Structures are given as C-alpha cells and as structure tokens.
Amino acid sequence: MSDDVFMEILARLPLKPLFRFKCVSRAWRRLISDDYFLRRLPLLTSAVFYHCNADAKEARFACTSGGGDLQECGMEFFPFHRDSDIVDCCSGLLLSYSRLRASFYVVSPITKRWVALPQTLKSTHLAVLAFDPCHSSEYRVISFTGWLAQGSELEVFSSATGEWAHHSLHWGVDSDAMTATLRHFAGVLYVVAFPNYIVAIDLDGMRCRRIEVPEPVKPEGSIDKSGGFLHYTCSDGGRLKVWMLEDADGGEWVLKHSIEVATILRQVPVKMHQQLQLLALHPEREVVYLRAPGKLVSYDLEKKEAEVVCEFRKEEEGVELVQIWLFPFSGHMSRCLAH
Amino acid sequence: MSEGTKEPDGGEEKVVLKTHDGQEFTVDMATANQSGTLKNLLSEVGSSSNNPQVIPLPSSITSRVLGKVVEYCQRHAAGGGRRGGMQALEQFDEELVELDKDMLLDVTYAAAFLDVPRLLDLTSQAVADAIKNMSVEEVRHYFGVVSDFTEEEEKVIRSECPWAFE
C-alpha cells in the first residue's frame, strides 16, 4: 500500500496509538514524523470544564480522542488536582496554581506527567504558560507580579534552566489598554492591545515591539501564525476578516479573506442568532476554527466549506465549558515533561 | 436522480470498467462520476451507450473489490432521495465497511486510486478504528510488517513516550 493511503489511515488515529505505532517499523516512524503528514492532521483539541455546582469547582480536562470526540483525561495522577486551580493551558499542557502552597505546577494530562515549579519571589497577579510544540520542547511560565503605567514587573520560569528570573517590561502602550487575548509562538508572546495594537514580547531578549493592526481591535480577535506569517483574525458579528502581516519587521497587513459569517452558519446546523467564537487558524492550512454552542467548527477558507470537527454536548452536560484550545501535533509534546 | 446525459437516441451514456481478472462492470455516468479519477478520464475521452468506453483497472483492484466500490458509487449516485433517505444511506455506509481485513485494505486502496473521497474516508476510518487499540505487535501482524528496528532502538522509542504504551 502506498504512503498516501497509509497517511489517510494514520491521520484518523487518536494521539496515543499514533505515538505508539512509531515503533512498528522505520517506515512507519518516518511517516508519523513526516512534516507533510503533520500538516495534514486536524488540530488537536483540548478543553477545560468546570462543574457548575457552586461549592465544588473541580476542573475537568478533555482531549480529542480521534473520530471527533473529546475524551476526558482523569486528573487523579496529579496529587494536587483538588486543591489547585487551572490558570492556563497551552498546547495540551496545563498550568495549575495552588493558593495553599503558593506553588505552580505544569501538568500534562496526555502523558500523565507533572512537575512542581520552584517558588516565585513575589506573588502573582496573572500567570501565562508559553509552550510551542512546533518550535521546541522548552516551556516557560510568565508570572506578572506588578503593573506599571506602561509595562510590568514579571518573573519568568524556563524549563531549560529550571529557574525563575526577574524582568521588567515596557510595552509601549498603557497597561490599561492590554487585553486578555494573547498567544504564544516560537518564544514570542503576542498580546492584543487597544485601540489597534499587538504587543510582541520576545521572551528570549525580554523586549517588546508594538505592531499596529489595520483596524480597531476587538476583544474576540485572534492572533495566529499560519504558514510562518503572523495573522490577525477578527469578526464584527457579520463578517470574518483574516489579515496577514507580510513581513514581521514592519511589513504591510494584507486582507487575505473576508467572509460573511452567515455563509458559514448556513453550512452547519447552528441557529442563525447564535454567535460563532473565533478560536484559531490552522498553522499550515487555510482553515479557521470556530466555536459554536456545543460544537467545534472548521471552515476551509479556500474551498469555502464548513465542517463540524467535534461535538462536546455530551461532555458539557451539567458542566460549564470554560476554555477550548487547539494545538498542532508534535513529537515535542511527549518529551516536554520527561524528566 | 441520474446525472447521466441523454443522448439523441434516448440511450444513456455508459462506461465499462474492466478488472485485471477479466470481469466487466457496466455503469452509468452518474456512478462513474463518483470517482474523481474516472470523471477526469471520461471528460477527456467521452463515452456513449452504443460504444461505451472500456477502462482497464490495475491488478490490485480485483472484481470483488471493484464490486464493492461500484456498489458504493451506485448507491451514492442515487443520493439520499431514494430508498429511505439520508438515514438509510448512512446505514448503508456503515454496513458497507463491515469487511474482513484484506478486503477492507483493498477497498481502501481502490478508493484512493479511483479517488472516491467519501469512501476513502469511510474505509480509512474503519481501518483506524480496527487498529487503534492494538499493540505494536498486533499492528505488525495486521499489515504484515516486519520490524527493522534493533531491540535497543525500539527501547529508545518506547522510552520517549511510555504513556502511549499504557
């Protein structure tokens, strides 16, 4: 059987057997590690759920199991799962914080591994996990410890050094203008800021760069890297616009796509008045991922075809879906907590 | 709801698919057009009822395998409008891929060769479902693959992702 046909089969496997079958033979390992194959895979999905009953706010985590279902990953292997909160998730890794111990934990529900980070010097106001499995197996935790008028004090933990380091940042816009819309790619943390900026924080050099976006930012905008280029996608409710920055160093924004949201809604069984929430762009393909109530929807911007990627109605029963993340398949995922 | 073009004499365009083992399958254009490969080919050469185009197929697509593909294409050319609607069509799809291993892999290959995307989707998913809970050894046996790793190499790969073997 040809490689192409094998890829059709492999692309439909859940994560666990896919990693396991690297052992079958050299040819299988080569196929599963192949860039071309990885680009064909749908984005993996993970989601955090909370029970809704007021007193017990125990979090649950689920991950795509293949075949379009979300499968709950039991958190019992992580001994502090009951007395800590999930504060962030990035590419399948969770950042958990225990108030009781004032400690951060990085947890991988897929590989069932976890690590306790050393103590921070100052208490945290906001913490972000930065992990890009396409780039490296290193992850960072950024703990913002104090806000300045146009910047912040922060501590950054790197899994490469195993230590926290103190820094201060000046981001070139008022701190009040910074939104909670942020994404991390290849060592750079991008934060959307009002009225029309993306602040790019280079975590290696700890420098900020202000990138002007072509239209006023909206809280539901999304920052993505696709085909190696920075993209800004926004929706005004009626239209979805995908902008691409031609050159990271001061290039022009190009409007790549502008789609009427109604045309997407017509193709999926979603009621017209229901909103679609932007989630992410595919890192390689011209595909945008959207969340509709109880569903994850992909829309192929070239073929103009919408498809329901997964339904999480069953998982959502009696619980509240807090956040859903999409991340690309990568071998780095299995190695990042392997100590 | 056949999409076949009526010829002036009222006959419908047909095409003959000939397998390596000598069997011939005569199908209408709507059925043939379910296959991207045949559609492209026929758009260039054309076919008619009196003198239908004969298309020879590679030896890997036996008459038994082609029979399955033709069954799928005929049913889907008719669409959900016939015989119980979309629900019946979905059930037909489900039952179609209930095949033994060799047949399933052969139909998967044929669906890829003939470019029948939905059928390829169905059969690939059926294979993936069949192997997803298998051990590495069982998968080797399933596909008739012999490991070319040394014991040491295999140990290293296993140690990289022990969670995948739990």
Automatic annotation (TrEMBL), chain A:
Database matches in SMART domains: FBOX (SM00256)
Q: Which Pfam families match?
A: b-prop_At3g26010-like, F-box
Q: Which InterPro entries match?
A: At3g26010-like, Beta-prop_At3g26010-like, F-box-like_dom_sf, F-box_dom, Quino_amine_DH_bsu
Gene3D superfamilies assigned: 1.20.1280.50
Using the record's annotation, list all stretches that form the F-box domain. 1-41
**Name of the featured protein:** F-box domain-containing protein
From TrEMBL, chain B:
Q: Which SUPFAM superfamilies match?
A: POZ domain (SSF54695), Skp1 dimerisation domain-like (SSF81382)
Q: Which UniProt keywords apply?
A: Ubl conjugation pathway
Q: Which InterPro entries match?
A: SKP1 (IPR016897), SKP1-like (IPR001232), SKP1-like_dim_sf (IPR036296), SKP1/BTB/POZ_sf (IPR011333), Skp1_comp_dimer (IPR016072), Skp1_comp_POZ (IPR016073)
Q: Which residues form the SKP1 component POZ domain?
A: 14-76
Q: Which GO terms describe its biological process?
A: jasmonic acid mediated signaling pathway; protein ubiquitination; ubiquitin-dependent protein catabolic process
Keyword Iron assigned to the entry: answer is no
Task: Describe which pathway this protein belongs to, using the record's wording.
Answer: Protein modification; protein ubiquitination
Do you know which Pfam families this protein is assigned to?
A: Skp1, Skp1_POZ
Limits of the SKP1 component dimerisation domain: 118-164
* Leader sequence residues: none
Assembly and partners are described as: Part of a SCF (SKP1-cullin-F-box) protein ligase complex.
Similarity section: Belongs to the SKP1 family.
Q: According to its UniProt entry, what is the function of this protein?
A: Involved in ubiquitination and subsequent proteasomal degradation of target proteins. Together with CUL1, RBX1 and a F-box protein, it forms a SCF E3 ubiquitin ligase complex. The functional specificity of this complex depends on the type of F-box protein. In the SCF complex, it serves as an adapter that links the F-box protein to CUL1.
This protein is called: SKP1-like protein
Origin organism lineage: Eukaryota, Viridiplantae, Streptophyta, Embryophyta, Tracheophyta
